[in-house]
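Appendix B, Record 12. Input sequence as logged:
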Amino acid sequence: MAHLHPMGGACVSLPRGCKANERTPSKVCTMAAHSLSSGNLIVDRRLGFAEGLARAGDSAAAADLLTEALGLTPDWAAGWFRLGEFREAAGDAPGAIAAWQEALRCDPSDRLGAGLKRDLIRRVPLSEAMPSAFVEALFDQYATKFETALVDQLDYCAPDLLRRGLEGQGRFARMLDLGCGTGLAGVALRDLCDWMAGYDISAGMLAEARAKGIYDLLEKRDLSALEPVEPAYDLIVAADVFIYLGALEQIVSWCVGALRPGGTLAFTVERGEAPVALRDSRRFAHSADYVAQLLQDAGFADVTLVAAPLRRDRGAEVEGLVVTARRAVRPVSRLGDGEGMALA
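Logged structural output:
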């Protein structure tokens, strides 16, 4: 049975030297779409003029100017992405959707996140996860200023909340930090484990984590495409990582297989009302019922969900869930009452 508890008050301070392990800048960057060169000086100049019009409040004129310029560089993904933003600001939703579709045509890997912008404006999200190329490019770009931005802008405490959720469970022989980022969750939890690995999609983030010298193993991995492994870990943590994956069935299934019987999974998510919802921040939120049921169906026991603010974003607290669960020592019985056979 899962239990949802409130958690109020300020977060306990992190261990010395640990500031946070935020995977989420307060504003998801547009990947500097307006600063990426088209390769055509005339088009770049027209984009500069368009940016000036947009800053002056005339997004419609900016969109018209950039639309004309894109006739010279029709395969410029960043230009189409920025055109979508101009059109959105001008109230032209169909035009914005069309522009972001063009950005996806030019860059199917979608490192700018055009598909997420398109789905948000449609209000019928189609994406079940952020594009891997988008997440990788975002955090590669952000890596060197990541921790400074967190300290200056956000009151973020997910690593501390995860640590508190693990109190009383003793030491762990082997720990895996999924989406380890710059390694600050590792700093917060290092003394709880004998051996620690970290996975992240961003080479820039891994470089920052490697410099800390606290991980026994660091690997560049796409968490949306992990290969099955033999049970190897006693603890798997993911601090503000699942907010980039949307639907959690695949990653939770992987964690079940990667944990030894009796092993612990601990993670944070942004809390929402719908089972899975894409927010304007281009992050996903998950409901407590969805998370609890998913974990129980996957074979976890002692599922606990703690409601707590994870950070501040644009002056407001972001409500989250701090989740811990233990992989059942014995397999969960899937034997039904025979109704299925009766209907066969």
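The chain has two domains: 3-25+149-327, 33-143.
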